[in-house]
Design brief:
Layout (H helix, E strand, L loop, with lengths): L6 H11 L22 H12 L3 H6 L5 H6 L3 H10 L27 H16 L15 H12 L1
Helix pairs in contact: 2-5, 6-7
Length: about 160
Amino acid sequence: MRQRLNLPAVAAYLRGTAPTAIAADHTSPRQPGAPQTLDAARWLELLAAVLGCSPEWLTGTGRITADDLAERGSIAAAARLIRSYSWESPPPPARSPPPDPPANTSAATRPAAWLAARDAYHGHIMGCSHCRAFLPRDAYHCPTGASLRRAYDAA
């Protein structure tokens, strides 16, 4: 079966993922005294995005110097120049270790008294026609359900 392409969905996706700022790529050299369109930090971020690395890696390895940041020419021309001089892919970023799971997150690690109180309370409210424990603020329990709830909270 052939599926049709959902063009409105594709257009919405492309609009949502489009860059917010597009840097102009002027191949002609900048005239002296002409205003800069991007500040140095933004220019470096865009250049790093084009090259697939971080701005810190570019400056740390000496591929971008303070003079380069002062001149800030075409991003495409700078990327071509950097790639032409023994370009090597940057190392992958170091991943942080996953966080430890929180302690006591399952019923298996709870004490037996808590498990018994929980099971008694849940067993009662599931079968009792008077208890309304599902109401978040105005929960109502019959006398038996109220005592089981107090025991469950205490455990």
